[in-house]
Specification:
Blueprint lengths: L1 H9 L3 H25 L10 H4 L1 H18 L13 H32 L7 H25 L5 H37 L12 H25 L16
Helix pairs in contact: 2-4, 2-8, 4-5, 4-7, 4-8, 5-6, 6-7, 7-8
Length: 243
Protein backbone atom coordinates (compact mmCIF):
# COMPACT_ATOMS: atom_id res chain seq x y z
CA UNK A 1 0.00 0.00 0.00
CA UNK A 2 2.85 2.37 0.84
CA UNK A 3 4.50 1.57 -2.50
CA UNK A 4 1.23 2.27 -4.36
CA UNK A 5 0.86 5.59 -2.54
CA UNK A 6 4.42 6.59 -3.49
CA UNK A 7 3.81 5.70 -7.13
CA UNK A 8 0.59 7.72 -7.14
CA UNK A 9 2.43 10.77 -5.78
CA UNK A 10 5.06 10.49 -8.52
CA UNK A 11 2.47 10.07 -11.28
CA UNK A 12 2.16 13.79 -12.02
CA UNK A 13 -0.13 14.91 -14.87
CA UNK A 14 1.51 15.55 -18.21
CA UNK A 15 0.37 19.21 -18.72
CA UNK A 16 2.33 20.73 -15.77
CA UNK A 17 5.35 18.61 -16.68
CA UNK A 18 5.05 19.82 -20.26
CA UNK A 19 4.87 23.45 -19.09
CA UNK A 20 8.01 22.98 -17.02
CA UNK A 21 9.81 21.27 -19.88
CA UNK A 22 8.77 24.01 -22.30
CA UNK A 23 10.12 26.65 -19.92
CA UNK A 24 13.37 24.70 -19.62
CA UNK A 25 13.69 24.52 -23.39
CA UNK A 26 13.10 28.25 -23.80
CA UNK A 27 15.66 28.88 -21.05
CA UNK A 28 18.25 26.83 -22.98
CA UNK A 29 17.59 28.87 -26.13
CA UNK A 30 17.79 32.14 -24.19
CA UNK A 31 21.05 31.14 -22.49
CA UNK A 32 22.81 30.03 -25.66
CA UNK A 33 21.75 33.29 -27.33
CA UNK A 34 22.99 35.29 -24.35
CA UNK A 35 26.30 33.46 -24.35
CA UNK A 36 26.91 34.19 -28.03
CA UNK A 37 25.75 37.80 -27.75
CA UNK A 38 27.46 38.78 -24.49
CA UNK A 39 30.72 36.82 -24.57
CA UNK A 40 31.20 35.83 -28.22
CA UNK A 41 30.47 39.19 -29.90
CA UNK A 42 26.98 38.75 -31.33
CA UNK A 43 25.82 37.63 -34.76
CA UNK A 44 26.68 38.37 -38.37
CA UNK A 45 26.74 36.79 -41.84
CA UNK A 46 30.18 38.03 -42.85
CA UNK A 47 31.92 34.64 -42.46
CA UNK A 48 33.78 35.66 -39.30
CA UNK A 49 33.47 34.51 -35.71
CA UNK A 50 30.07 36.17 -35.39
CA UNK A 51 28.81 33.96 -38.23
CA UNK A 52 29.91 30.93 -36.23
CA UNK A 53 27.70 32.10 -33.35
CA UNK A 54 24.63 31.15 -35.35
CA UNK A 55 25.78 27.53 -35.15
CA UNK A 56 25.24 26.86 -31.41
CA UNK A 57 22.01 28.89 -31.32
CA UNK A 58 20.44 27.08 -34.28
CA UNK A 59 21.62 23.66 -33.17
CA UNK A 60 20.30 23.98 -29.63
CA UNK A 61 17.02 25.48 -30.88
CA UNK A 62 16.46 23.02 -33.71
CA UNK A 63 18.26 19.80 -32.92
CA UNK A 64 17.38 19.72 -29.20
CA UNK A 65 14.45 21.93 -28.17
CA UNK A 66 12.25 21.83 -31.28
CA UNK A 67 13.09 18.18 -31.88
CA UNK A 68 12.12 17.42 -28.28
CA UNK A 69 8.80 19.18 -28.80
CA UNK A 70 8.16 17.12 -31.93
CA UNK A 71 8.92 13.92 -30.04
CA UNK A 72 6.36 14.73 -27.34
CA UNK A 73 3.40 15.56 -29.59
CA UNK A 74 1.75 12.17 -29.02
CA UNK A 75 2.13 12.48 -25.25
CA UNK A 76 -0.39 15.36 -25.18
CA UNK A 77 -3.71 13.86 -23.98
CA UNK A 78 -5.65 15.86 -26.60
CA UNK A 79 -4.05 13.70 -29.29
CA UNK A 80 -5.47 10.49 -27.87
CA UNK A 81 -8.92 10.88 -29.43
CA UNK A 82 -10.34 12.16 -32.66
CA UNK A 83 -8.57 12.30 -36.02
CA UNK A 84 -4.92 11.40 -35.83
CA UNK A 85 -3.84 12.93 -39.13
CA UNK A 86 -3.59 16.57 -37.86
CA UNK A 87 -1.26 15.43 -35.07
CA UNK A 88 0.81 13.46 -37.57
CA UNK A 89 1.17 16.63 -39.61
CA UNK A 90 2.14 18.62 -36.51
CA UNK A 91 4.70 15.99 -35.48
CA UNK A 92 6.20 15.87 -38.96
CA UNK A 93 6.09 19.66 -39.34
CA UNK A 94 7.92 20.30 -36.07
CA UNK A 95 10.54 17.71 -37.01
CA UNK A 96 10.93 19.33 -40.44
CA UNK A 97 11.34 22.76 -38.83
CA UNK A 98 13.96 21.26 -36.53
CA UNK A 99 15.79 19.84 -39.53
CA UNK A 100 15.75 23.17 -41.41
CA UNK A 101 17.25 25.02 -38.42
CA UNK A 102 19.85 22.28 -38.08
CA UNK A 103 20.91 22.57 -41.72
CA UNK A 104 21.22 26.36 -41.34
CA UNK A 105 23.36 25.77 -38.25
CA UNK A 106 25.64 23.47 -40.22
CA UNK A 107 25.85 26.01 -43.05
CA UNK A 108 26.98 28.67 -40.56
CA UNK A 109 29.86 26.61 -39.17
CA UNK A 110 31.02 25.42 -42.60
CA UNK A 111 31.01 29.00 -43.89
CA UNK A 112 33.02 30.15 -40.88
CA UNK A 113 35.57 27.37 -41.33
CA UNK A 114 35.92 27.92 -45.07
CA UNK A 115 36.27 31.70 -44.68
CA UNK A 116 39.04 31.31 -42.10
CA UNK A 117 40.90 28.36 -43.57
CA UNK A 118 39.92 26.04 -40.73
CA UNK A 119 39.65 22.33 -41.63
CA UNK A 120 36.19 20.77 -41.54
CA UNK A 121 35.17 17.49 -39.92
CA UNK A 122 38.30 16.70 -37.89
CA UNK A 123 36.94 16.61 -34.33
CA UNK A 124 34.86 14.04 -32.49
CA UNK A 125 32.20 16.72 -32.02
CA UNK A 126 31.91 17.27 -35.77
CA UNK A 127 31.75 13.54 -36.52
CA UNK A 128 29.06 13.01 -33.90
CA UNK A 129 27.08 16.06 -34.99
CA UNK A 130 27.09 15.25 -38.70
CA UNK A 131 26.26 11.61 -37.99
CA UNK A 132 23.29 12.75 -35.88
CA UNK A 133 22.01 15.02 -38.67
CA UNK A 134 22.34 12.26 -41.27
CA UNK A 135 20.48 9.82 -39.02
CA UNK A 136 17.85 12.50 -38.40
CA UNK A 137 17.33 13.03 -42.14
CA UNK A 138 16.88 9.28 -42.71
CA UNK A 139 14.47 9.08 -39.76
CA UNK A 140 12.32 11.91 -41.11
CA UNK A 141 12.27 10.61 -44.69
CA UNK A 142 11.35 7.04 -43.71
CA UNK A 143 8.77 8.27 -41.20
CA UNK A 144 7.19 10.52 -43.81
CA UNK A 145 7.01 7.69 -46.33
CA UNK A 146 5.63 5.21 -43.81
CA UNK A 147 3.18 7.21 -41.69
CA UNK A 148 2.04 10.15 -43.84
CA UNK A 149 1.92 8.82 -47.40
CA UNK A 150 -1.16 6.64 -48.03
CA UNK A 151 0.64 3.76 -49.73
CA UNK A 152 2.10 2.05 -46.63
CA UNK A 153 0.06 -0.97 -45.42
CA UNK A 154 -0.96 -1.23 -41.78
CA UNK A 155 1.39 -4.16 -41.10
CA UNK A 156 4.38 -2.14 -42.28
CA UNK A 157 3.47 0.75 -40.01
CA UNK A 158 3.08 -1.56 -37.05
CA UNK A 159 6.43 -3.16 -37.83
CA UNK A 160 8.30 0.11 -38.22
CA UNK A 161 6.67 2.04 -35.35
CA UNK A 162 8.89 0.72 -32.48
CA UNK A 163 11.97 1.26 -34.66
CA UNK A 164 10.88 4.85 -35.32
CA UNK A 165 10.32 5.46 -31.61
CA UNK A 166 13.69 3.95 -30.66
CA UNK A 167 15.65 6.04 -33.15
CA UNK A 168 13.69 9.13 -32.13
CA UNK A 169 15.03 8.87 -28.58
CA UNK A 170 18.48 7.88 -29.84
CA UNK A 171 18.72 10.93 -32.12
CA UNK A 172 17.69 13.23 -29.28
CA UNK A 173 20.40 11.91 -26.97
CA UNK A 174 22.98 12.11 -29.76
CA UNK A 175 21.87 15.70 -30.33
CA UNK A 176 22.36 16.51 -26.65
CA UNK A 177 25.78 14.86 -26.66
CA UNK A 178 26.78 16.81 -29.79
CA UNK A 179 25.67 20.14 -28.30
CA UNK A 180 27.37 19.55 -24.96
CA UNK A 181 30.63 18.45 -26.61
CA UNK A 182 30.43 21.48 -28.91
CA UNK A 183 30.07 23.86 -25.98
CA UNK A 184 33.07 22.25 -24.31
CA UNK A 185 35.13 22.41 -27.50
CA UNK A 186 34.31 26.08 -28.03
CA UNK A 187 35.37 26.93 -24.49
CA UNK A 188 38.70 25.13 -24.94
CA UNK A 189 39.35 27.05 -28.16
CA UNK A 190 38.25 30.45 -26.83
CA UNK A 191 39.43 30.57 -23.23
CA UNK A 192 43.19 30.35 -23.67
CA UNK A 193 44.71 33.69 -22.64
CA UNK A 194 46.29 34.34 -19.28
CA UNK A 195 43.32 36.06 -17.64
CA UNK A 196 40.50 33.80 -18.80
CA UNK A 197 41.84 30.28 -19.07
CA UNK A 198 39.18 27.61 -18.98
CA UNK A 199 40.86 25.85 -16.04
CA UNK A 200 40.50 29.06 -13.99
CA UNK A 201 36.71 28.85 -14.47
CA UNK A 202 35.93 32.43 -15.52
CA UNK A 203 32.34 33.69 -15.64
CA UNK A 204 31.89 32.61 -19.27
CA UNK A 205 32.95 29.05 -18.42
CA UNK A 206 30.50 28.87 -15.51
CA UNK A 207 27.71 30.23 -17.72
CA UNK A 208 28.40 27.85 -20.63
CA UNK A 209 28.88 24.82 -18.36
CA UNK A 210 25.51 25.58 -16.77
CA UNK A 211 23.97 25.79 -20.24
CA UNK A 212 25.37 22.34 -21.03
CA UNK A 213 23.89 20.87 -17.84
CA UNK A 214 20.46 22.34 -18.64
CA UNK A 215 20.57 20.95 -22.19
CA UNK A 216 21.43 17.54 -20.76
CA UNK A 217 18.58 17.81 -18.24
CA UNK A 218 16.15 18.75 -21.03
CA UNK A 219 17.15 15.70 -23.07
CA UNK A 220 16.90 13.32 -20.11
CA UNK A 221 13.43 14.62 -19.20
CA UNK A 222 12.16 14.25 -22.77
CA UNK A 223 13.44 10.67 -23.00
CA UNK A 224 11.92 9.95 -19.58
CA UNK A 225 8.57 11.32 -20.73
CA UNK A 226 8.71 9.18 -23.88
CA UNK A 227 9.36 6.06 -21.78
CA UNK A 228 6.64 6.73 -19.17
CA UNK A 229 3.83 4.18 -19.77
CA UNK A 230 1.00 6.34 -18.37
CA UNK A 231 1.80 9.15 -20.84
CA UNK A 232 1.85 6.99 -23.96
CA UNK A 233 -0.92 7.34 -26.50
CA UNK A 234 -3.24 4.31 -26.28
CA UNK A 235 -2.49 2.12 -29.28
CA UNK A 236 -5.38 1.61 -31.61
CA UNK A 237 -6.03 -0.40 -34.74
CA UNK A 238 -8.92 1.82 -35.79
CA UNK A 239 -9.40 3.12 -39.31
CA UNK A 240 -8.23 6.53 -38.09
CA UNK A 241 -4.84 5.13 -37.07
CA UNK A 242 -4.35 3.85 -40.62
CA UNK A 243 -4.95 7.19 -42.37
Amino acid sequence: RCHQHSVAMLDIPFPPFCAFLGSLGLLCVALVGTWCQHWRGGFSLDGGSRTFNWHPVLMVTGLVVLYGAAALVYRVPNTWSGPKLPWKLLHGGLALGSFVLTVLGLAAVFRFHNSNGTPNMYSLHSWMGLGTVLLFSCQWAVGFGTFLLPWAPAWLRQLYKPIHVFFGSTILMLSVASCVSGINEKLFFSLKNGTAQYKLLPAEAVFANTLGILILLFGVLVVGALARPSWKRPDSDSLDSRQ
